[in-house]
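FAQ

Q: What does a record look like?
A: Structure on top, sequence underneath. For example:
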């Protein structure tokens, strides 16, 4: 089974999460292509797609959301998982959902996972630094690679069941 893991990442923290997912899926013998979302020309070669993005202000990066929107109909015919990485990754009860939840519904994704991200203040541009100073979110690397690995393992198990049927 051929699997695409595509990601929208600005500074690389989300790309590293996606790479860990791709590597974990590959350990199960699946043929995995790992790509930046903006570099994906088509998805017709793949039986399964895992698509993720960094989240800024509740929005996915344009390269990842653009890939999803451009291939929305075709994604509905495939096995799809979505993931979001960012500082605002936990939706509390009663809190409105961000756009990635609607993306998951639109393509009938098996699951949409949220992972905490990383904020390296030194990598930000001047405008981003001003916004961060105003919002004052926690700075540092909050990624949980054990959780990422466990999620990828869960997907691999589902893919194995799909491949058998």
């Amino acid at each position: 089974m051929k699997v695409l893991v595509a990601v929208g990442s600005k500074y690389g923290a989300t790309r590293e999460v996606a790479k860990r997912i791709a590597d974990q899926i590959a350990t199960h013998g699946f043929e995995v292509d790992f790509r930046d979302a903006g570099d994906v020309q088509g998805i017709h070669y793949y039986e399964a797609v895992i698509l993720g993005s960094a989240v800024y202000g509740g929005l996915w990066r344009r390269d990842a959301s653009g890939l999803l929107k451009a291939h929305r109909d075709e994604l509905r015919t495939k096995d799809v998982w979505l993931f979001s990485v960012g500082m605002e990754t936990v939706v509390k009860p009663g809190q409105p959902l961000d756009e990635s939840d609607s993306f998951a519904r639109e393509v009938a994704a098996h699951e949409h996972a949220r992972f905490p991200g990383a904020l390296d203040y030194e990598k930000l541009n001047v405008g981003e630094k001003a916004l961060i100073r105003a919002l004052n979110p926690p700075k540092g690397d909050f990624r949980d690679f054990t959780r990422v690995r466990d999620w990828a393992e869960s997907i691999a198990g589902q893919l194995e069941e799909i491949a058998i049927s």
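Q: Is there anything notable about this one?
A: The mean pLDDT is 90.
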